[in-house]
Structures are given as C-alpha cells and as structure tokens.
Amino acid sequence: YIDLFSFHGLSTKKLMDYVLREGGNMTVAEELKAEGKIKHIGFSTHGTPRVIRELILSDKFAYANIHYHFFGSYHAAGNDDGTGQEGNLGNLKLCLEKDMGVFIISPFDKGGMLYKPSEEMCQLTGPNLPPLIFAALHLWNVGAHTISVGIAKPSDFDEVLHAASIMDDENTQSLVRRAERNLNKQCVRERGGG
What we know:
- This protein is α/β, with parallel strands linked by helices.
- 44% of the residues lie in helices and 12% in strands.
- Helix 6 (131-142) crosses helix 7 (158-166).
- The relative contact order is 0.11.
- It comes from Tetraparma gracilis.
C-alpha cells in the first residue's frame, strides 16, 4: 500500500476542481483508499492562500504540503486567505483544527537561504541559536509536523537534528522568543517604523 498519497501541485482553482469534481481524480484515490491500497490522501500546492483554504475546507485530505516560515509564505506572502490573514499561517492553523498533518515545503531555502545565513541574520537570532535551528523550532512551535530539510550532504541534517533534541528545553524556548522579538524589531526598522 501507499502510506501517504499526495496530489501534487493543486495550485489553481481549475486544478482543484479537476481533482475534486464528481468522478474526478479524488474519486479514484478514495476507491483505492477503500481497497486499502492508500492509507492517507493529501495535497501539495503553490497556490494562493484562498485556494489552499478551500482545499482544506473540502474535508477530503488528511494532510497538506504548504509553504510557510517565520518570514512569510513564499509565493503566498501578501495574499489574503479569505479571513483577513495574510499568507499561510492561517491555513497551517486551519489544518491543525481539522486534525490534518502539516508538511512545510522548503523553509530553510525559501525562508532566507538559512544554510548560508547572513551575518546580520546570525546576530539577530543570537550566538546560541543559529538561524536554521531557529527556523525549525519556530515551525514546530506554530504546529508544523514535518519540515523538508533539503540536504546536499549528510551533515546538513546536523542542525535540524540538534533543533529536535533541544526543542522542549525552556531555555531554548526563551532563545526562540528572543530571536522572534529581535527579528520583528528589525522588520519594523527596515519598514521605517522605528
């Protein structure tokens, strides 16, 4: 059987309707699930927050692969999800409310090329919390279940594994909150607000 079956690239209303319409691809996937050949049906998307929200609200999926990171939602940044929230944080929370799995796509690359962070970024997250570790911890704190790591060599796992090993430590959480404050203050300064 296939444990996690995903419709890839449900990024437009047209593609969503194609999959979800009566007799569409979801019908076939659900038949295979009923036969025990698929355990969980999900989707991946580069769609707008509104399309993603509609996919989640269809109640047809067990999990979603979406873009979200501390600095925004990649392609979804600046777009309203239909409830007044910008980007995909609202969609991430909606998935959690619906007991769906949340897989975050490319948070370390699209979230600021954190494999090669700038010196300024390193200063803002602090000497005891490298940017990539901060990014992983932030995502787990907001409820993401799985994050793609995108490794080029085995040692690329090191920082993420370290983040997982310290995520429940209160001192670590204090460092994460401080980094979030520093980054938010810098964002306000960059926008000319202080």
